Amino acid sequence: MDFSRSTEHRQIQEMVAEFADDVIAPRAAELDRTDEFPWDLVDEMAELGLMGMPFPTAVGGAGLDYHAYASALEEISRASGGVGTIIAAHTSLAGNMLYHYGNDTQHEAYLVPLNEGDEIGSFALSEPEAGSDVPSMTTTAERDGDEYVINGQKLWISNGSVAETIVTFAKTDSDAGHRGITAFVVRADDEGFVVEGTEDKLGDKGCPTAELSYRDVRIPVDRRLGEDGDGFKQALETLNGGRITIAARGVGIAQAALDAALEYAQDREQFGQPISEFQAIQHKLADMDTKVQAARLLMHRAAGLKEQGKPFIKEAAQAKLYSSEISREVANEGIQIHGGYGYVKDFPVERFYRDAKLNEIYEGTSEVLRNTIAIQLLR
Ligand SMILES: Cc1cc2nc3c(=O)[nH]c(=O)nc-3n(C[C@H](O)[C@H](O)[C@H](O)COP(=O)(O)OP(=O)(O)OC[C@H]3O[C@@H](n4cnc5c(N)ncnc54)[C@H](O)[C@@H]3O)c2cc1C
């Protein structure tokens, strides 16, 4: 497989890296402290075309391929894991659902405003009692003439409290298991749609994680994505692509931890020499870099297969699983290399550790991804 990237890819990555260093990174500690949604950053990212990267220009996107999109998300996440999730939920989840399963009218009404950064999108699949076990969801959408009436609750929804478009999954046939799930466009101003609150999380600050209620939310039939019963398949396909960008988030956070550790190890002196002179520290740095490089290759392998229209379920799961685990390990070693300074908020490495941990939980836990990989191996 050819992992060489075009000049255009490199230029895009450099442009986003510069923006991440100059604009996002200086704000990252403040975002982590305040946990406030960075509306002004979103405006700036929209100006640069970063709110709809993988979609064609005809629907307001930037027309990037998945390699370039993943590299850009890596750079953004290197600066802030929270901003990485904002983009991933908005684009990889909400945007991809609309792009792949929406019709032209739905593209115009809901996807274009997301891609142009005028509106925020979210993807509401998980529920209090239905996380990994998606088909056990209890949110319902009952047909009533030309409308559906949605009732239920969603939990853990990234961007859920700031989104205008909430792609919502509900059961249109409660007896049909996963075949009874359907996706809808719910709008934040729909009557009966309520943001109950947001979570106080370990990390991933700046991206609100919301609890949502649907109380007799009436929406017209033309807000359904695809047909009744298509939702589960659509969600899985969307999450497969999404995992490539969560892999990118992991690579970005791990790279940030490595960069910080490299700098610190050369500055910090103990026993009359920089700690980077100690072989124990050198080996840590060597292992950290090896893991980052390997995770990046897995990410581009999955992106390449997706680009070519080839099956990529196993490869996306492997990229996300490996990147998630190494980002936590690399951030952990980043703290270790900083010693006591790594454990306090004066240095960013403890944030990288908190942000990295999330990757092992959302868009398929590491346990569920191992199941996915094993199923693909054994089929
Ligand atoms: C910050 C954050 C943001 C999120 N954003 C979104 C979002 O935007 N949209 C959305 O819909 N959801 C979102 N989620 C939800 C996330 O996808 C779920 O938390 C995740 O799928 C796990 O579900 P759960 O939390 O209910 O855990 P559970 O499914 O209850 O899992 C608990 C434990 O059991 C294990 N387990 C469960 N089933 C199996 C199995 N079959 N085999 C082996 N082990 C198993 C899990 O791996 C885990 O270790 C987000 C979550 C968080 C924390």
Short description:
By secondary structure, the protein is of the alpha+beta class. It is built from ten helices and ten strands. It folds into three domains: 7-120, Butyryl-Coa Dehydrogenase, subunit A, domain 1 (Orthogonal Bundle); 122-229, Beta Barrel (Butyryl-CoA Dehydrogenase, subunit A, domain 2), CATH 2.40.110.10; 232-378, Butyryl-CoA Dehydrogenase, subunit A, domain 3 (Up-down Bundle).
Structure description:
This protein is α+β, with helices and mostly antiparallel strands and 379 residues long. It has three domains: 7-120, Orthogonal Bundle (Butyryl-Coa Dehydrogenase, subunit A, domain 1), CATH 1.10.540.10; 122-229, Butyryl-CoA Dehydrogenase, subunit A, domain 2, CATH 2.40.110.10; 232-378, Butyryl-CoA Dehydrogenase, subunit A, domain 3 (Up-down Bundle), CATH 1.20.140.10. 53% of the residues lie in helices and 16% in strands. It contains ten helices and ten strands. The protein has helices spanning 7-34, 39-47, 66-79, 81-101, 104-115, 231-267, 279-307, 313-338, 349-358, 366-378, and strands at 121-124, 140-144, 147-158, 165-171, 181-187, 193-198, 209-220, 224-225, 269-270, 273-274. Strands 1-4-5-8 form a four-stranded mixed beta sheet. Strand 2 and strand 3 (147-158) form a beta hairpin. Helix 4 (81-101) runs antiparallel to helix 6 (231-267) and helix 6 (231-267) runs antiparallel to helix 9 (349-358). The longest helix has 37 residues, at 231-267. Flavin-adenine dinucleotide binds next to strand 1, strand 3 and helix 10.
